[in-house]
Automatic annotation (TrEMBL), chain A:
It is a multi-pass membrane protein. The keyword Transmembrane applies. This is ABC transporter permease. The chain crosses the membrane at residues 33-55, 87-109, 121-140, 146-166, 186-203, 235-256. Belongs to the binding-protein-dependent transport system permease family. Residues 9-21 have a biased composition (Low complexity). It is found in: Cell membrane. Keywords: Cell membrane, Membrane, Transmembrane, Transmembrane helix, Transport. It comes from Motilibacter deserti. InterPro entries: MetI-like, MetI-like_sf. It holds the Pfam family BPD_transp_1. PANTHER family: ABC TRANSPORTER PERMEASE PROTEIN MJ0413-RELATED (PTHR30151:SF0), ALKANE SULFONATE ABC TRANSPORTER-RELATED, MEMBRANE SUBUNIT (PTHR30151). The keyword Nuclease does not apply.
């Protein structure tokens, strides 16, 4: 499955700063937005050309028409809701589990030695390969679907969190100690804030993995969902529906990534960039 | 001299470096009186940072005793403020919250915390930057913030590890004067590590010159210039004479630079 990587879709925009560079940045931001639009228009035009030249592609208009039908009869909304629910649930659970486990691994060498072999082992197994096992163990309802997404998000995020804790500047910990901070306080007031930038990187990678795993997860006897819709469309050679599914996944992934980026900018704006 | 504030008794520290032992400090003894300003100067690898870390409680000696206020040092404590060369400000906290960090650890209430922080920010001239993040400050301002943060928990001792080492020459001279001003207003016992001879003489009432391999006290030179020391003090013949003495002690140890072929020493 080929999806556009939402993390590379638009250039990062920094906020704040002194007036003159800010103005220059705003001007650049405007220009890059125009360039983004130009690029999209050119892409769609190229697609149209290829379809008209007789390649087995639906025209953009056909895809738009199909999208309109799927919206009108509520299928698309149901599919989006079902898929979003799985992604959000799996991603939220994965992140929620990864952060404490990552902290544990970074902070206690014993925990690290106990946990790391398992993480490294599961990291080498593609989530798709887990599916037969998940079906046998968990049945065919929502649980195995959410589980494989959870696993993908968890593995991506736990490594980043762990790395963040290991990389906390020793001098900051010393500085806290000489100011009278004890272990718990050092953990809460130094280690956690210092590793948040890493956690966010892990979350963004995890979100990408969660979406990447979605279609695989919906191979498991799903009744709805964007991945399911695309697979059943494949049986009927229904290319426009497949395109609608692909575009929906790309747009949803992009929107969620941008939201996460927005939160990241607010929470870790204290960082010195470049 | 009455009972010393800081008493270093035959302190040794050896590091195990890939099989062979390295004597960072060998049999170092030093007494520092209350409210004295002592600078320690010496070539890299003479163990001056190790000495400071031992007094701060961040490292343990392998031999001898480090005694502060009659009690042996065991771990860091708020009675000893430390200022690091790399500033070590918490980048996610504003200047004021950095200064309040230690006060919060001690359970000082919000109002009092703020008052104390503002007081020390005024003392170092950073009151206008209380709400700024460290990333927006220059190196000199960051170090002033770190000094305010160390002062805020009201330590009786300040341990400073080459605090101005990363700054340009002009900023360094400025901060030296500011530090003396701050110290004049609120005296503390200061142990100040540096590799800059001018800085060592200008600040101190006693300069401890150390030698490397093994790290040891080479000479102790009294600086009997009166405080406050205006900038012109640097141009006086007395200053020049002292500066020459310290320079010779640092750069011509044992009649010439003692270069013994040895593996390089990590400078912390």
């Amino acid at each position: 499955m080929q999806l556009t990587d939402p993390r590379r879709a638009a250039p990062a925009v920094t906020t704040g700063g002194t007036p003159a560079p800010a103005r220059r940045r705003r001007r650049w931001r405007g220009r890059s937005l125009v360039l983004n639009l130009v690029s999209i228009v050119l892409g769609v035009a190229g697609w149209e050309t290829l379809a008209l030249l007789g390649y087995t592609l639906p025209t953009p208009a056909a895809v738009a028409r199909r999208a309109g039908e799927l919206v009108a009869d509520g299928t698309l909304a149901d599919d989006v809701r079902a898929s979003l629910r799985r992604v959000v649930l799996g991603f939220a659970l994965g992140t929620a589990a990864a952060v404490p486990v990552g902290f544990l691994m970074g902070w206690y060498a014993t925990a690290r030695a106990l946990i790391e072999p398992w993480i490294q082992f599961f990291r080498t197994i593609p989530p798709l390969a887990i599916i037969p096992l998940a079906i046998v163990l968990m049945g065919i309802d929502e649980t195995p679907k959410v589980f494989v997404i959870f696993l993908a998000a968890f593995l991506a995020c736990v490594i980043a969190t762990f790395q963040g804790v290991v990389d906390v500047n020793r001098t900051l910990i010393d500085a806290a100690r000489v100011l009278g901070a004890r272990d718990l306080s050092i953990f809460l007031r130094v280690v956690i804030p210092a590793s948040t930038p890493f956690i966010f990187v892990g979350m963004r990678v995890g979100l990408g993995s969660a979406w990447a795993t979605l279609v695989a997860a919906e191979l498991i006897a799903a009744q709805s969902g964007l991945g399911y819709r695309m697979q059943s469309a494949q049986l009927y050679y229904d290319l426009p529906t497949i395109f609608v599914g692909l575009i929906s996944i790309g747009v949803l992934g992009l929107v969620m990534d941008r939201l996460l980026l927005l939160v990241e900018r607010r929470v870790t704006g204290w960082q010195e960039r470049r | 001299m009455a009972t010393p504030k800081i008493s270093v008794r035959s302190v040794s520290k050896t590091f195990d470096l890939a099989g062979h032992e390295l004597a960072a400090l060998q049999d170092v003894s030093l007494d520092i009186a209350d409210n004295e300003f002592v600078t320690v100067v010496g070539p890299s690898g003479c163990g001056k940072t190790t000495l400071m870390n031992i007094l701060a409680g961040l490292e343990e000696p392998t031999g001898g005793h480090a005694v502060v206020d009659g009690r042996e040092v065991s771990g860091p404590g708020p009675d000893r403020g430390v200022i690091f060369q790399q500033y070590a400000l918490f980048p996610w906290l504003t200047v004021r919250r950095n200064v309040e960090f230690g006060l919060r650890e001690q359970g000082v209430g919000r109002r009092e915390r703020r008052e104390l922080a503002d007081h020390y920010l005024r003392l170092v001239g950073l009151e206008q930057f209380a709400d700024a993040l460290p990333k927006t400050l220059s190196g000199g301002m960051r170090q002033r913030c770190a000094i305010a943060r160390a002062y805020a928990v009201n330590p009786s001792i300040l341990l400073m590890d080459e605090p101005f080492g990363a700054l340009d020459a002009l900023t360094r001279v400025n901060l030296q004067e500011q530090l003396l001003q701050t110290w004049n207003e609120e005296r503390r016992t200061v142990l100040f590590i540096t590799h800059d001879v001018d800085e060592a003489v200008f600040l101190a009432n006693r300069v401890v010159v150390m030698a490397a391999r093994p790290g040891r006290v080479f000479d102790v030179i009294d600086v009997d210039l009166p405080y406050p020391r205006p900038e012109e003090a640097r141009l006086s013949p007395e200053f020049a004479a002292l500066r020459n003495r310290v320079w010779r002690a640092v750069h011509h140890q044992d009649g010439g630079p003692a270069v013994v072929p040895q593996p390089s020493v990590p400078t912390a």
